[in-house]
Amino acid sequence: MRQPSELSYLDLQQIVESIQRFLYIDQDDAGREIWDPDKEWSGADVCEHLAHMLSLHQLVPEASRPVAGRPHPYGLDPIDGPAFRKQRQLLLSLATLAREGETYRASSADQDLLDGLVNLTDVIADQAHDKHGVDCLLEPGITCDCQKPGYFCSGVPGIVAHVENGQLSSGSKVESCDQCQRYPSDQAARDKLVELGIV
């Protein structure tokens, strides 16, 4: 089960928008959608909708278990200590070379360590975005194309796809965003949507 602190800004936006639409969008006599502050709903339907949205975002417990204490707001999944130590040593070496004005060619092993650091930074940025507006992927003030509202906004940063009511539309293509490149391929982006229950 994910913790609320793990949700991205767009995740939260999607949940709130879905609840808002469920509670206040109705149809007029001509069958057109309208915003209706007096729309009637039943408590059971509201609860069912909330449970569905929580399930879509993996916020439902998988099994009965004791309630743990509230996690640290920036708690990360367990970090691989030995790998993180190597990553830190690599960063120290790069800093030394940069101070001395020397060039550096990364080996394949070093490239893996650097990729891991980029991924770790992305996780931290995702978790901190709500509170501090942190986004390590783009320049400040720039919104990535995959996060701009529109027909192909999937609600998942880094993935371009047409999603309706929390599910991938029939026949919709799934693509990794070329701008922020959060996912290495279109297949990796699709796998993420499957993991989130959107496909």
First-residue to last-residue Cα separation? 18 Å
Discrete helix count = 5
Main sheet makeup: 2 strands, antiparallel
Approximately what portion of the residues adopt beta-strand conformation?
Answer: 5-15%
Helix content: 40-55%
Query: Which structural class do the helices and strands define?
Result: mainly alpha
Order of helices and strands: HEEHHHEEEEH
Within the largest sheet, what's the order of strands? 1-2
- Show unreliable segments: 69-75, 136-141
- Provide the number of structural domains: 3
Mean pLDDT: 79
Give the tally of β-strands.
6
- Gyration radius, in Å: 21 Å
The coarse silhouette is: elongated
What does this protein structure show overall?
The chain has 199 residues and is mostly helical. It is built from five helices and six strands; from the N terminus they run H-E-E-H-H-H-E-E-E-E-H. The protein has helices at residues 9-24, 43-56, 81-99, 108-132, 186-195, and strands spanning 25-27, 33-35, 159-160, 163-164, 167-168, 175-176. A two-stranded antiparallel sheet has the order 1-2. The chain has a two-stranded antiparallel sheet with strand order 3-6. A hairpin with a 2-residue loop joins strand 4 (163-164) and strand 5 (167-168). The chain is elongated, with a radius of gyration of 21 Å. The relative contact order is 0.11. Mean pLDDT is 79; it is low at 69-75 and 136-141.
